[in-house]
Design brief:
single chain, mainly beta, 6-stranded mixed sheet, 4-stranded antiparallel sheet, about 5% helix, about 30% strand
Length: about 900
């Protein structure tokens, strides 16, 4: 989230297949996420570049445009399509992935040997987005979100002070103190992706896996699990409800009615006994069953769009009366509200009053019922409005004053009414509900049916059933007169707000006080249920619960260098929606020295304050003092200590580079950098670079081709590329040449599986011989992937510069590989979506590297100057491993 950059700041937004790669290869569409840096001189000129996940539409369906397919990089919608490619395309192209791939890999992992040694949790510290040390034009500081962590997509709370928070890809954490002092309780499960959390009438905790946001970094799950004693217990695989019916889905909602639990999933609506947890789930309704697994069209690329269910509303007076909210947020003919008929079939509902029922106006929808059954509320995102209105897709907020799903319903808010309630989103050039396909929650006060919390990009509240609204959780503090960038005042006289992009809500009690808990792209926050507000209706009592023990940070990269000032090392990395973090040798709290989305990183091993941070699409920035600023830049911009040095491909937006584009420093010369877009760019000034004009174009990968991985050693450069990058005509290759622009050529990569026809995700070059190279290949092997040439294997070795390759995957589980690192002892480390693996120098078989590392995707491995291996995970922060422990590792 958060502001401080006027550069576009997109989070990706695709859904189903993501890191587990278990569903179809078709992504769920695109999104942009941009936030400005509001106080610098460019604010007015760049006000359209905001932290918004806008949707790009094409032909009535949100498009997933292939890189190179057009777009000038200046519009949120145009850029959004490329954003989807980050996770989904890498793990699915060139074809459809069959359900069960991840489960099979996880089962194999259970029987593998582990090396000696434990991983250490580096980022188990509070991360202060408002850190005054880094308060300048490129930081997130002073926006008001305070301490943050990664996206929280599920919350449950009880009346005894227990709170449960689910990370997007981080599993479930428990607090016994009303929030804070968190402990993980789901790390033994095969999926750490959170759809929703819910407590039932028996105080059991239900965990639905598979993140329910249509975002590109959303992972599918392995079903629903129940914990009978959530105060003391831990989730385990044996606690799964039913069988494998809900594997490879995302789960939007769980609703309890009578003796049943209902689940709204990406493959229709299911039900199960809430008392007898064995036996299969029952499919209640799928509007297009032919697209389901086993159906005639199960391999159709549009399959993941065809049976999406968003929520379920049950009549409190008659549990047999159920209303289903079904439909893809981009629009489809099956979208609508469905009711069960006398013959037990499901038919479209109509005549409900103000609540839309037509397929053009029913998109993402959320229900919330009053505890006494007297009210039922709903949010509706309209596909038609999303397509036509660049500022908001919110159709409206509605209430059924009799508590019945069948109404009559009355509209109580639209985006214009919410805008007038104290929203700060308009300062970003948009209106409330611009991301209502991504941001939704509703919660009714159990003691007052007219008191409702509403989550969109911001947190809204009504205490009179919707007659009037306030905005206790505004987007940020920047447009308010009370805001000040002066570090001595922190956020001026403005009260803390929440991070933006709301996903989850719950009410709970601790020490006699009832709290409202909200989860968003920056973690979890709380305030008293009936809290205090200022004259503008903005809350004065938000508390961040992101104390560092809840680490769900979603890293794309990690950089490590010596801390020459304080000793030890400085660790930094790019994050989804939370900028660039930095943790120096003496720090007890991490700070944010670059704002916007973080991406790839280059750090000087000899000086950790020399950092190049990528925003997105190769928009690179460099600092040589860790981004620390004394504030003098505010009156003299020439005193700024961070410089934009983006290669020219950045100006082409998504058509010129991947959303998270690869950058690297040469392994033997830290002054030689390589950045990959459509072109291979080389900088020979290292951290002394001050302008994007100083990059040289070493090689053109070709029209429609974009780099997916780069490596350089002694001036020999390897570049992996794709284009098209999705399963429609997927193509990939490897180019090799010299940093000085000579000797470039494309390797001959036949489609016979020698190197699988899948996404090239990482290289490692032997420092002793640049002709000796390893390549990591993403996606699943031919057994699971139906596309042509998908091949078998995930790690390949060449000793002649790529002329010939050998598959060295051996006993690796069949799971997407992301990053490979050659260790000083000659061994290899491989980071995957499941674990990090190790192969000793004189061995052929792989072991799991160490213990303790959570089951989260390892996006990048980096060796530090302290003889430790660092792993950037996308959901559980950064971890490190002492590679000297590998001396005791036995070989085959």
């Amino acid at each position: 989230m958060l502001p401080q950059r006027h550069r576009r700041r997109f989070i990706t937004c695709t859904v189903v297949a993501a890191a587990f790669g278990l569903v179809s290869s078709q992504s769920y569409a695109a999104s942009g996420d941009a936030r400005p840096r509001p106080w610098n001189a460019r604010h007015q000129a760049d006000v359209s570049r905001q932290h918004i996940k806008a949707v790009h539409h094409h032909g009535g369906r949100s498009a997933v445009a292939a890189p190179g397919s057009g777009g000038d990089g200046s519009d949120e919608a145009e850029n959004s399509a490329e954003a989807t490619a980050q996770f989904t395309e890498a793990r699915t192209a060139p074809g459809v992935v069959a359900p069960g791939a991840y489960g099979a890999a996880w089962q194999q992992l259970q029987s593998m040997r582990h090396t000696h040694g434990d991983w250490d949790h580096v980022t188990k510290k509070a991360y202060n987005a408002d850190d005054p040390r880094y308060r300048d034009v490129n930081s997130n500081s002073s926006g008001g979100a305070g301490k943050v962590t990664g996206r929280i997509t599920g919350i449950a709370a009880d009346d005894q002070g227990y709170v449960y928070a689910g990370g997007a890809n981080g599993g479930v954490f428990r607090s016994k103190t009303g929030g804070g002092h968190w402990e993980p309780i789901a790390d033994k499960l095969p999926s750490l992706s959170t759809g929703t959390l819910a407590l039932d009438g028996k105080k059991r905790l239900w965990y639905a896996t598979g993140e329910s946001n249509t975002g590109a970094t959303a992972f599918v799950g392995t079903g629903v699990y129940v914990l009978s004693d959530p105060h003391r217990g831990q989730f385990r695989p044996g606690g799964r409800v039913g069988g494998a019916e809900l594997e490879s889905t995302v789960i939007h909602a769980l609703r309890f009615a009578g003796s049943k639990v209902w689940a709204a999933t990406s493959r229709g609506v299911w039900s199960h006994s809430a008392t007898t947890l064995s036996g299969p789930w029952k499919l209640e309704f799928a509007p297009n069953p032919e697209y389901m697994p086993g159906g005639a069209k199960e391999d159709d690329p549009s399959g993941p769009y065809k049976n999406i269910a968003n929520d379920i509303a049950v009549d409190p007076k008659d549990p047999s009366k159920v209303l289903l909210a079904v439909g893809w947020r981009g629009g489809d003919t099956y979208n609508g509200l469905y009711a069960k008929q006398a013959d037990r079939s499901w038919k479209p509902a109509s005549g409900l009053g103000d609540l839309p029922t037509g397929h053009d106006d029913v998109g993402n929808m959320t229900f919330a019922a009053a505890a006494d059954g007297s009210r039922l509320y709903a949010i509706d995102q309209s596909p038609a409005q999303t397509a036509a209105n660049p500022d908001s897709g919110l159709k409206g907020v509605y209430v059924a004053k009799n508590g019945s799903p069948f109404g009559p319903w009355t509209q109580i808010a639209d985006y214009t009414k919410l805008k007038a309630s104290g929203s700060a989103l308009q300062s970003a050039g948009y209106q409330p509900g611009i991301q209502s396909w991504y941001n939704q929650f509703l919660q009714v006060d159990p003691a007052n049916a007219d008191h409702v919390y509403l989550g969109l990009e911001e947190v809204f509240e009504t205490k009179n059933g919707g007659t009037s609204w306030s905005t206790p959780g505004p987007y940020w503090n920047f447009p308010f007169p009370c805001w000040s960038i002066d570090p001595a005042k922190q956020t001026g006289d403005c009260s803390q707000t929440t991070h933006s992009d709301q996903h989850a809500v719950a009410l709970g009690s601790y020490r006699g006080k009832t709290w409202a808990y909200v989860g968003n792209d920056g973690g979890i926050y709380r305030r008293p249920l009936n809290g205090t507000v200022d004259s503008g209706g903005h809350a004065t009592d938000w508390q961040s619960l992101n104390d560092g023990t809840l680490d769900t940070l979603q890293y794309y990269s990690v950089g490590v260098g010596k801390d020459l000032t304080h000793g030890g090392v400085s660790v930094t990395g790019g994050l989804q929606d939370n900028g660039q973090s930095i943790l120096r040798g003496h720090d007890k709290v991490m700070g944010s020295n670059f704002g916007g989305d973080g991406a790839d990183t280059i750090t000087d091993p000899a000086n950790g304050c020399n950092i190049a941070a990528e925003y997105v699409y190769l928009d690179m920035w460099v600092t040589q003092n860790c981004g620390v600023n004394d504030g003098s830049w505010a009156t003299d911009p020439s005193k700024a200590t961070e410089y934009e040095v983006a290669p020219p491909d950045k100006d082409l937006g998504g058509s010129g580079a991947r959303f998270i584009a690869p950058i690297t420093a040469d392994a033997k010369d830290t002054n030689t950098w390589v950045a990959g877009g459509r072109h291979v760019w080389v900088n020979i000034k290292g951290f002394a670079i001050r302008s994007g004009k100083e990059w040289k174009n070493a090689y053109d990968l070709g029209d429609g081709h974009v780099a997916t991985a780069v490596a350089s050693s002694g001036g020999t450069v390897y570049v992996g590329w794709c284009g098209p990058c999705n399963n429609q005509g997927f193509s990939r290759g490897i180019a090799v040449g010299n940093a000085d622009g000579t000797g470039w050529h494309q390797l001959n990569l036949p489609t016979d599986g020698t190197i699988p026809h899948r996404y090239i995700s990482g290289f490692e070059v032997d420092p002793a011989n640049a002709q000796h190279v390893y390549v990591a290949v993403n996606g699943f092997s031919r057994k699971w992937t139906e596309g042509p040439g998908a091949g078998v294997g995930h790690l390949f070795e060449s000793k002649n510069g790529g002329a010939n390759w050998t598959d060295i995957s051996a006993n690796l589980p069949d799971v997407p590989a992301n990053t490979v690192k050659l260790l000083p002892n000659g061994g290899l480390a491989l980071g995957t979506d499941l674990a990090t693996f190790y192969r000793p120098a004189d061995a052929t078989k792989w072991q799991v590297l160490g213990r303790n590392l959570p089951t989260a995707a390892v996006m990048q491995l980096r060796l530090g100057p302290d003889s430790r291996l660092y792993a950037a995970t996308h959901g559980r922060g950064i971890w490190s491993f002492d590679i000297q422990r590998l001396k005791a590792t036995r070989n085959d």
